[in-house]
Amino acid sequence: MPALIELPERLYAHDFAELARGELDGRVRVRWLALAHLQEGRSPREVGMMLKVHEKTVLKWLRRFRAGGVEGMAEQPGGGAKRRLKAEQEPQLKALLAQAQAKRSGGRLRGEEIRALLAEHFGVEYSLSGVYVVLHRAGLSWISARSKHPQRNPQAQERFKKTSLSR
Fold it and tell me: Distance between alpha carbon 60 and the CA centroid of its chain, in Å?
């Protein structure tokens, strides 16, 4: 027979089933359901089996409730990988990329070139796909208009445009 756990008195002051019905975040909803089942007298092992989680997870949720109450059950920020390029560095990146693009006589910056700039100026290493994520977060697009050849002849292009339109 599983060992009985002592539930805090304030656990009985809440209607967790009602909280679960109104919760939009699915992960938090499962936590509310776990507490509702504990409130009804089920063991952490039974609750874990019903909700398809380990009983230690149920006990962890109970500890979170004891420590922080209803507010402590919400999703905590800070999960996942941390940014290497900080949000406050993004304006500097935009200015750097605009300056680098202006120096070019034709074509556009490529992802590999942006990788090198990030490493050189900010000391951060990114994969090529990571560079595109950084650009997106900074509000920049790596897709641009067709580049202009450095040896282009604007008069010849205008003549071609006029003749092709008159056909």
Answer: 25
d(C-alpha 146, C-alpha 71), whole Å: 52
104: Cβ contacts below 8 Å, ≥ 6 apart:
none
Q: Please tell me the distance from the alpha carbon of residue 124 to that of residue 82, in angstroms, as a whole number.
A: 12
Q: What are phi and psi of 100, to 5 degrees?
A: -65, -40
3-state class (DSSP) for residue 41 = coil
pTM attached to this predicted model: 0.52
- Say what the pLDDT of residue 77 is: 81
Element (H, E) at 51: helix 44-51
CA–CA dist 142, 136 (Å, integer): 8
H or E element: which one contains 28? Answer: helix 26-39
Q: According to the model, what pLDDT value does residue 159 have?
A: 64
Give me the residues of the chain with pLDDT under 70, please: 1-4, 142-151, 156-167
